Every structure is written in structure tokens, then in C-alpha cells.
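Input record (one chain):
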Amino acid sequence: QSQLAESGGGLVEAGSFRRLSCEVSGLRFERYSAGWFRQAPGKEREFVAGISSSGATYYSEAVKGRFTISRNNNQNTAYLEMNNLKLEDTAVYFCTADRLDPAQTIKGWSYWGQGTQLIVSS
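The corresponding structure, as predicted from the sequence alone:
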């Protein structure tokens, strides 16, 4: 039974730092890519970042230079470090995993978490 569990969301101030975590179970995590999507109210779910099983990273233009995705295979966990948070980063953040290299489309990912809500305030 595969599961992805996000944590680390909450209410934060603009300009601050926050790290999200995604704990993965039921998979040989080291063989899978991991990724993060987000969905703001009234908008479509969008790709944020991905990391392949070999450690190659990918970012959307909206977060490149501010966010960092990483993984710890021994802990079966993926992370998303977010710097200089902006109001437009407010969204529900979803963790995802797949055997193939990271994709920017929802259909490119097989396993999903329930999401964690991040609210950035001024």
C-alpha cells in the first residue's frame, strides 16, 4: 500500500522561509522520481518542482531561484525548501511520485498525497 504524506504547511509571512516534507511508504523510493505541484483557489494545479531518482532537478519559472527540491532516500522523504515567499505562493501543495523522469503534467505522475495548505500573508 503506497502512501505519500505531506507536512509543513501553515500560515507564514511574506519574505520568510518554509520547508515542506513528503514521507513516502510502500514504494522503493530510491527508484522513483518525486515532485511537487500546487493549486491556488480558482486556478489549475501547476507543476512546481521535480527530482529524478538520480538527483536531477527541475523547476517551474515561477519558483526557480527561490525553491529547492531535495530527497533523502534513507528516510524515504522528499523536501521542498521555499525562500522569500510571496503572496502568490499561497496554495495547496501536493507531493507526487512516479517511476519515470519528472514531468510537468499531472498525468505524468502515478502516486499523490493529500496536500498541505500554505498561506502567505503580508
